[in-house]
Each structure stands twice: as structure tokens, then as C-alpha cells.
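Supplementary Methods, section 5.1.

A reviewer requested that the exact input to the structure prediction be made available. We therefore reproduce it here, unchanged from the version used in the analyses.
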Amino acid sequence: MFGILSVLGWLLTAYLARGAGASARASMFAWAAGFVALMLTLHTLLYALLADRKARDADWLRRHGRAVQAEVVKIGRRGKGWRVQALAVAPTGTAAPTVFKSDILRADPRPRLAVGDHIQVHLHPTDRRRYWMAIGTESKYL
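The structure derived from this sequence is encoded cell-by-cell as follows.
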């Protein structure tokens, strides 16, 4: 959608610039259309590059991360979505238990999960702040 708008913006810029001639007003509209087209192009490129980042990170963590068992301790509302919290005892080699929080989910996970269930959490090998929780939801709910 934004790609099409970007192309249309560049076409409008070319049309206005060609017909601008000595008119200051037409030249100003050509510059404005060019700026809008540039912003739409940048938006489209950044979206294309960054749109699947969460899915790529989750796939990487499933393949390379260390799997630990965690117990679901809370399922609650978070704004308009849902969040699952799980507790794992000493997953990172420390004595303290670690609380893991899921991403905000659009659908209620309670039909698939209950407090007290055990789930897998995949930890990043070197950065314990990065993890992925296998809570049994399809990607359409994330």
C-alpha cells in the first residue's frame, strides 16, 4: 500500500516539477510532493526491513537458545491485550528465580494455558534479558 503511494508521490513530483517553469507556487508544490514521496519511500523501506524482526528473533531463539521450564504464575490483561508471566527457578545459573513476561497478546491465552502449567522458555546463550516463551499461540495472536 505505502509502496504504491510512494510511486504515486514520485510521479506527482515529476509532473509538478516539469510544469513548474518559473512559477514559484508550482515549484513549492513540487518540493512538497517530493518531500512526501521521500517520507513514504523511507517508511516503506524501514517497514520492509523491520516488519519480521520478532518472528526472526523467535526462530533464532528456538534454534540456538537454551530451553528451560517455567511455571505460569499469572495471566492478565495488559491494556487491550493479554500477558503471560512465568517463573523459572535458577534458569541462568543464579540462585534467584527469574520472572519471564510474554509479549502483549491480542487473544485471551486462557483457553490454552492456565496458572500452574509448565511452559518452555528459550534463553539467549549470552544475554539473559532476551528470551522467547513457547506459550502455544499461533503468530496471528502475537
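The two ends are 22 Å apart (CA to CA). These observations are discussed further in the main text.
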